[in-house]
Amino acid sequence: MAQDTERDKMLRGEWYDANFDEALLKERLTAERYCYTFNQAMPGSEEQQEALKNLLGGEIPDGLSVLAPVYFDYGGTRTELGAGTFVNHGAYFMDGGGITIGKNVFIGPFCGFYTATHPKQFAQRNKGLEKALPIKVGDNCWFGANVSVLPGVTIGSGCVIAAGSVVTKDVPDNSVAAGVPAVVKSKIEP
To answer: Does the structure show a pLDDT above 80 at 129?
Structure first.
């Protein structure tokens, strides 16, 4: 029976070696290189579009717009961006746990989606251990500037997340959430 890889553990949301596992380091280096190419290319150029295809693992969804710079830990193998989605400058997708962004989502500048967490005990952190939990965002959401979404969070469709918010818990459909930590402030009538 084959032993589980660190990637297998990552995909199951278990503790895994994120810092010293050669296979994961190689995957992240590949994504980092695609990010570099995308971020350094002339905006809208064929070179930039090709780098985005590589980052997303294939075709670019209809109407997707991503502005440089953008950063992915793993890219297309772990992040899915929906059609009509707009990603503003400086977005970061720490996507070991997987990030799914729905259709027609507006992501403001300098937003971060962070699927990884680390042990509280420094001895465990120093071993490179990490756990990655998925983030899911529904359709037709709007994220103001500098929003942080933390591991394991699901944000329903039709939500507005106010600038500067830190989303630590799930947000139901058609909600306005704001604050640190973000809380639902009101409902939006669809």
So the answer is: yes
